[in-house]
Amino acid sequence: MAESTARQRGNATSPGGSRAAADAQRFGRPERGWRLSLYVVIFEADTRAGRLFDLVLLASILASVTVVILDSVDSISRDHGPLFDALEWMFTGLFSVEYAARLACVRRPLRYARSFFGVVDLLAVLPAYVALLVPGTHVLLDVRVLRLLRIFRILKLAAYVGEYRALGSALVASRRKILIFLSVVLMITLLMGTLMYVVEGPERGYTSIPMGVYWAIVTMTTVGYGDISPHTDLGRLIAAVMMLLGWGILAVPTGIVSAEMTAQRFAGRLPTTRTCHECLTEGHEAGAQFCRDCGAKLPPYQRD
């Protein structure tokens, strides 16, 4: 009872930890037996077997998407249609076995099946079976490209996972500054677009204020389509100011996000896939001995 109370208190007082524990508890990590061994290989990528499984899966995903793309080209499909069909069914069988293995090794398979990646796993194999009943639906197999989102989870290289999370946290922390920056840019483009509408006029392509704002955005972002351009000396002067202003404006959001990422880089250490067997909190450091949420002793860190 005391351990359960302490666990609940730890989860409640740690927003990040409770969120990670809630995600882990949705599926359930087995405690022992073949299901635990299979779970470690499939869901945790810090062991040699886990890395090999993930790399083979990633290569299979890329190959299957390539097959679908090539099969959509008529000239290639006519020459290699039977080969593509055989490869597609091979990949379908592989992904079907993988999906079944994921459901078998978690304690709550229904929750995994209803999760985002669980739905993606199902959609990766479902179109092939549906195509047997409804011809023409094989093009839906392109949904497998969504599984490439697993690359951050699959490889589990600290640099990639850590920087991905750091970038997301930095964007969230900088959202107010970025919104203010965008509002300033919007005001500048509105003013300069209106000014160009007055200076150049409809006869030179600036038929309305929205068209002038469009020109201001294109010019400020240094894209320069050239479909609308100033012809008067004053208009060219305004355009030159907008171009120079664009150089400075493009550097502002980069500085904001970079400052937040730098601040967060020194605020904590990069996590691993290490999971507590008691509360299922994921992401403990490699050298941690006790769970940061419930205080239970952690199993040895498995990595080879």
Can you put this structure into words, describing what you see?
This protein is mostly helical. The protein folds into 2 domains: 26-156 and 274-284, Voltage-gated potassium channels. Chain C (Four Helix Bundle (Hemerythrin (Met), subunit A)), CATH 1.20.120.350; 171-265, Helix Hairpins. It contains 12 helices and 2 strands. The chain has helices spanning 2-13, 15-27, 33-43, 48-71, 74-105, 109-114, 116-133, 151-154, 158-173, 175-200, 209-220, 233-265; strands spanning 274-275, 282-284. A two-stranded antiparallel ribbon has the order 1-2. Helix 3 (33-43) packs across helix 4 (48-71), helix 4 (48-71) runs antiparallel to helix 5 and helix 10 crosses helix 11 (209-220). The longest helix has 33 residues, at 233-265. 23% of the residues are buried.
Q: Which regions have little confidence, pLDDT < 50, spanning 5+ residues?
A: 1-23, 146-161
* N-to-C series of helices and strands: HHHHHHHHHHHHEE
Which structural class should the secondary elements be placed in?
Answer: mainly alpha
Considering DSSP H and I runs of 4 or more, what fraction of the residues is helical?
55-70%
User: What is the class of the largest domain in the CATH system?
Assistant: Mainly Alpha
Strand line-up of the largest beta sheet: 1-2
Estimate the strand proportion.
under 5%
From the coordinates shown, what is the CATH architecture of the largest domain? Answer: Up-down Bundle
C-alpha Rg (nearest Å): 27 Å
**CATH superfamily grouping of the largest domain:** Voltage-gated potassium channels. Chain C
The best one-word shape is flat
For the report, how would you describe the main beta sheet?
Answer: 2 strands, antiparallel
How many individual domains?
2
Strand tally: 2
CATH topology of the largest domain: Four Helix Bundle (Hemerythrin (Met), subunit A)
Mean pLDDT over the full residue set: 74
Count the DSSP helices: 12
Distance between the termini: 37 Å
